[in-house]
Every structure is written in C-alpha cells, then in structure tokens.
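Xanthine dehydrogenase family protein molybdopterin-binding subunit, pasting as requested.
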Amino acid sequence: MESTRNFSRRAFLQQAGLSGIALTLGCHWPALGKSVGEIIHGGALEEAATELMTWISIDGAGKITLFNHRSEMGQGTWQAIPQMIAEELEVNMDQVSIQSVPGHPQKYGPQPQEGSFSVRGWYQQLLRMGASAREMLIEAAAKQWRVDATECYAENGQVVHRSTGKKLSYGALVKDAAQLPPPKQVKLKERKDYKIIGKSLPRKDIAAKTNGTAVFGLDKKLPGMLYAVVERNPRFRGKVKSFDDTATRSINGVKRVFKVQRAVFGLLYEGVAVVADSFWTAQQGRKLLKVEWDDDGFEHLDSEQLYARMHADLNKPLPSDVFETAFKDSAATITSEYEMPYQSHSCMEPLNCTADVREDRIEIWGPIQEAVWIQADLSERMHVPIEKVTVNMTFLGGGFGRKAFTDYPYEAALISKEMKAPVQVIWTREDDMTLGPFRSGESYRCRGGVDAQKKIFSFQVISAGQPMGTGADEDGTPEPVTENRGGLAGLVSDYYKAIPHYSFGSMSIKSPIPTMWWRAPGANTSAFAGESFVDELAHLAKQDPLEFRKAHLPSDRYRALVNKLAEISHWTSRRKNDGWGMAITECFGSLVGQVVKVSRRQDKKVKIDKVFAVMDCGWYVNPDTIRAQVEGSIVMALGAAINHATHFKDGMAVEKNFNTYLMPRLVEIPDIEVHIMENDEKPGGVGEPALPAFAPALGNAIFDLTGTRIRKLPFKLEDV
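Structure tokens follow.
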C-alpha cells in the first residue's frame, strides 16, 4: 500500500496548475517629477530604469498579495495600503494578504517611513494599480464570453456579466489577464461609491500582534546566530583609549571582545563589543568590562549651560527694520520666551539589528524605518555592491524617527563581519535612552502686537537650539531677520494671510550632543511657542481665544475646523471655575485643533479632565487608524509636557530608564474625544500632525484656570 503524502494546500494548487501564473502589476515613473506613474506588468519591473511603486500580485488560485514596501511601526500602513488597493480591485480585506519586502529602490522606489507620507504620497498610484488590475480582469472575462467589456463589472473578487449574471473568479481569469497590456487610463471611483475606504475595518496586523506571531526585530533568529552588546562612550564623541577584558573573557559563552564603531552623521563614535552565545551572557560580560575613555577635545556640557547659550543666542539675529517699525506701531505689544526640553525617543522596543555579513553580500533584519537609506549606507561604507545588500524590515515597536537612522545597522554589520557569523546586536533600555541622537531642546523669543481693531499687527519668533546632526563645534553666525518670509513649523499657514507683519529667525548653538528628528519634527517644539504666544496676544487684545484665532483665518477650511472644535467641545458653555485652552496646528498636509479642559481637584491640584481633538487630513482611508494615531499622539505629547525630559550632566545624559524618564500612567490619561473632518481636500498625514497642538492647548488651559502662563516644558501639574 502506498504511503500517504502530506500535501499543503499551496503545494496542491501549484501542482494542479492553479498558481503557475500570476497577474503582477507595478508603477513606474519614466521621468523624474512625474506626478502619476505608468502602470506596468511585473515582468517589466526588473528592466524599469527609475522609480517604481509597490506592486500587487493575483495568482491562479485567486490569492491576492500586496508586497508592502513601507515599514509598520504602529501607524497603520499595514492596513491603509491594502485597503486602498482592495477598494479599486473590488475585493474585501479578507481576500488580501500582505507581505513585507526588503529595501529595493529599483523595484519599489523610495521607501521611507517618515513625514506621514504613506497615504498622502502614494494614494493615486495605489488606487490606479488596483483599478488597472480590475480592468484587465474584466477585459479577460469579456473576451471569454465574447461580449463588450462595458457589459461586465467586478465585484467581490469576480467578474459578473450584467445581463446573464454569469460569473468568473479572478483566479479563473488571471492567466488570460496576465497577457493583456495594462490600460493607459482608468476611471477611479467617486468617494460616495467606496465600499471599504473610509470604513473602520479591523487592521490586518491585529491578530499577529495579539497572538505573538508578529515578528519584531528581537524575534529574528538565524542558525548559528550570536548576540552582542556594546559598551559605548556616554559622552558621544569620546574615543576608546584602552580596555581590559580579562574578567569578561573568563565568562563561559563569551566569544570575542573588540573595539567597534558606529557612524553618526559625519562622525564615527566608538565602543567595545562583547559577543557571546546569548544576550544574557553578553550582558554579564559587559558588566565586567573595564574601558578607559579619551574624552579630550570637546566640551562636557550641563543642561544649564546649553539653555544659557540658547537664551543668549535669541538676541543675536540681526533685526528687520520693517518689523521693528511695525512692532513699535502696534497699539499694544508683548514679549515672551519659551523653552522646550531635549527628549529621548524611548520606543517601547529598544534599538536592535541582526546582521549576516559574508564576503560578497550583506543581509540585515530589524525594526527599520528607512530600508533604502540603510541599504545605500551599508553599500557605500562596506564597499559592497548595492544589489548585494538586503535590508529586511520587521515590525517596529515604535520608531518616531530614530529607527530611520543608519548607525545601528552599520554597527551590527561591522560586528558580524568581524565574527564571520550572523549577530544580533541589542541595545539595552539604558543604551537606547542615553546615547542619542536626541530631539534638541529649543528656546524661543516671541514678540508681537495688536492694532486698534484688536487683530495681530506684528508677530515675530526667534529660535535657538541645535540643528539635526552631531552637534556644532562653533556658534552659529547671526543672520538678518527678513520681513514676511519663511514660517514657523506647526503654525497654521492661514495666519500668514491675515498678519500684516511677521518674521522668523533661528540660531544654532555650540554643542557636541547629537540631535535628530522626533515625531512631528520642528512642529513638536515650535508649535508650543507659536500657539501659546497667539493665546497671549488674544488676552492682550481682551478677546476670546477661539474667536481671536478665527478672526485670523480667512480660508473656509480653517474656519470650518475651528467651528467644529467649538461645537464638539461646547466652547461657549465654559464655566468660570474650569480652565479651557485651545490650539490649532498644521503639518504634513493636515490641520489639527485641540481643546483641553482642566480643573482643580478637591486637594486643589490641577487635573486634566478632557481633550477634544479635530483632525482634518482631507481624503482618508481608515477612521479607526486616524483616531488611534490622534490618541497616541496626545498621550506622547502629554508625557513630553508634564512627565519626562533628557538632562545632561558633565556631557552625559542623566535619565537612563523609565524610573526617571517617566511615562504617563493610565490614571494620568484624560478622556480623549476625536472627530474627523469630512471634505474633498487632498490627503494629509495622520501619524504625526496631532502631536504639536496638545502642549500649547494644555498651557493655555492652565492659564485660563490659574492665571499662570506655562512657558517652559516639562512642568508638574501639582506645581501650578
């Protein structure tokens, strides 16, 4: 008797010939700057000369696969990208599977996960790709039935003939459809006809993230993999003078101890790697390691010195004579200074990376925000052809910009190359919090005045802090402030239409501390100064803060957002013993308005009662994702406003773990009510724009309750 063979369903389908051919589509831009790409067959993808977009595949079994080229760090691209394609493809989300792809600019084009760009940057191409596949399947069915394609339509993964009701599944049509040229033009649906876009569908990654099957960076395992930790210089720029690894090497399981580097912008930072057969063993060896550092040649600054330089620099930019005249001509004026702290990224998943470096190739796995940048960096630094460098993106346990950086994959690759084996490099929580790069602290000097009609007549913001990089070795050069040019990150652009005289300037301070982007870069600090100062001008003019802002918003879209915010928060019902504050901000193509309500508890301490938020991101995909991102942004902004900051002492970060870098507790999180504006605007970002408005809205609410103006973050609620 023959033994029974164990066939998987997939193997059976392949042998039956159902999966032997696929309809595979991509998007190709033959010329730079072209706003909408050309839909092409997957077979032509390899020959395409320039940027391509994520592609989809339908096989003979009717299985629909989206090759997701974007990283997923909780912001929802894992759901939004397939939801857009599925809408025009006329399938439901249960019929779609998703596969992550490595960095490959020739095949997938740019792959950064930053700037809230996944939907707003690619929605047209994604919709057109789904529609193109749909039309090819319809044409294939029409040819089989020998009818005109206009007599057919697609629905739920099949093509239907209107008059007879005959149906053919996508799987039955894919062989013929794959032979057809993609249509040059496709008609996209109107929003009123959407079946899944705009609907709160369950995210495709929920099950994997709740049952433990989702693969994050730390979950990656390879045969023969070793583990490494690195003792890095806590003063960032210091060099390894010497190290004693005698005690470290005595631990059973420690394989090697050697000096290693990581590239941080233009500098190479040094450390000592301990490689072992387990993370635990490597950590124990690291604790016994003795390193002597050479920390000469750069300053060892305290936080007080950093902020003293910032505040001194606020007076350095050369004034604008036009603005100075307008400031003097204002009916009433006010000047204020604001201060924002340095912040760690402190993702729930610390940095990690697994690297396998061979003589002729490099492959890495990890929580990576920007696969293409890292692929190019490894290729250049390690002299390996870019097509031999593979960067695999796992799920990310948070990113906030830190995991788009190239330093930690390069360090892991160097260690793997030295060991001639796959190595997983793990940063401890203390490493992750203290070694940077950090969000820079910032100081702001705001000056402005109102006219006799109680509207803003003059408005100026000068900032001082660190630009992104390894830190400046010299003070910035003062530059003249120009009139009515530039802008302030996070400040709504409609203000510039209504304010007659505005100017902005900035200075960079001397500091060796490495800094970089942090969620909603720029706006996450400057919006606090800008919208707090607008509130100060409203009180200077003795005007209601909401009506004052609305008087400076000439465009219907901006006014509609403020009206909605007033409606949902019941702004006109404010009571005397409550504190109400608001702020409106704009970044990455989206507008956000927030109202924060505060009051005093029985023990007289201030508590946050509720946050009302209105998001205007234009055309959108999944409202549940938007609400989740707004809520998460508000919680993150709350922590940065009242809980945590990174301080420096003798050139080293002070806060090392969550016992001192305090995160908001559940009891601290207020009720958050989120509303989404409905309009026909182009899509804006969602993952970042809701963060900047919270801190100024909170500060303005506390002023309304207590008469105390919050100008420095973080602060403690119990102190006001």
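Note for the archive: Residues 118-145 form the longest helix (28 residues).
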